[in-house]
Design brief:
Number of strands: 5
Mean pLDDT: 75
Pfam families: zf-RING_2
Distance between the termini: 37 Å
Protein name: RING-type domain-containing protein
Strand content: 5-15%
InterPro entries: TRAIP_ubiq-protein_ligase, Znf_RING, Znf_RING/FYVE/PHD
CATH architecture: 2-Layer Sandwich
GO cellular component, one term: site of DNA damage
Shape: elongated
Low-confidence stretches: 1-18
CATH class: Alpha Beta
Number of domains: 1
GO biological process, one term: replication fork processing
Amino acid sequence: MSSLRFFSSPKKCFSAISSSSPIGQCIICYSPLTQSNTYAITKCGHTFHKRCIMRWLKVSENCPTCRVDAVKYDIIKLYIQELNFDDTFATNESVKKVIAFFNVFYF
């Protein structure tokens, strides 16, 4: 069920996550959270669907996970950017230089 895929190449060592891949689970409805539908309470950082947390806060003015006081003005939309490892290290040569640096100074 994991959305993480790991690659054998050093250039592809980060996980591949698309905007529709689950990044967690809403504790209120138990449905998957994705990059496009994740909202958080600013006081504690716990994440939910917007619809779920807004309904929850109409009944109970606290976080359903940790019970910190919260109101609708404490909710923010999270903008989760996809990690593109190719933009960080343009070539395998760059990766080899970084690995060589750590081997010289740390091993």
